[in-house]
Amino acid sequence: MSKLFVGGLSWNTTDDSLYDHFSKYGQVTEANVIKDRETGRSRGFGFVNFSTPEEASAAADACNGTEFDGRSIKVDVATERTERPSGGRGGYNGGGGGYRNNDNY
After folding, report:
1. 85 or 42: whose pLDDT is higher?
2. Is 36 in contact with 92 (CB distance < 8 Å)?
3. Distance in angstroms (rounded) separating the CA atoms of residues 8 and 45
4. Which of 39, 43, 64, 78 is at 20 to 30 A from 58, Cα to Cα?
5. Does an H or E element contain 21, and which?
6. Which residues form the RRM domain (predicted)?
7. Whole-structure pTM over 0.85, yes or no?
8. How is the beta sheet containing 3-7 ordered, strand by strand?
9. Nearest-angstrom CA–CA distance, 99 and 2
10. Does residue 64 contact residue 74 with C-beta atoms inside 8 Å?
11. Cα–Cα distance measured from residue 54 to residue 41, given in angstroms and rounded to the nearest whole number
């Protein structure tokens, strides 16, 4: 439980400001604001890693629902991502679509 999810971040929040804000509650080992691949703009959430689960828990309790960079943030224990099916959106692995050449039937 040493990794926290932080949601509701301001578009102006940076990795450094996130690090500084949470370092009041313990030893932060990493702080990342997640950015859109194409635009480089914040997606409004991030993750903060602490050196111990106790520090992470104290930070979550202290910061959840508080204001940071002008926004009310949600802080919770991060959960591991589950495996997603491969093969594109929606897990559908079917063929192309739209145009059908009736000469093939």
Report:
1. 42
2. no
3. 6
4. 43
5. helix 15-22
6. 2-80
7. no
8. 28-35, 42-50, 3-7, 74-77
9. 52
10. yes
11. 32
HSE-CB of 4 using CA atoms within 13 angstroms: 33
The structural domains of the chain, with segments of one domain joined by +, span 3-78
The CATH code belonging to domain 3-78 is: 3.30.70.330
User: Smallest Cα–Cα separation from 68: which of 3, 35, 24?
Assistant: 24
Whole-angstrom distance, CA of residue 11 vs CA of residue 44 = 6
Q: How far apart (Å, rounded) are the C-alpha atoms in residues 37 and 11?
A: 15
- Considering only CA atoms, which of 44, 41, 39, 52 is closest in space to residue 5? 44
Identity of residue 84: R
Structure tokens that stand for 43 in this block: 């997606």
pLDDT of residue 17: 97
pLDDT tens digit sequence for 28-75? 999 999 999 999 999 999 999 999 999 999 999 999 999 999 999 999
Please tell me the least confidently modeled range out of 13-17, 54-58, 65-69, 86-90: 86-90
Distances (CA, A) of 84 to 36, 59, 74, 89: 19, 30, 25, 10
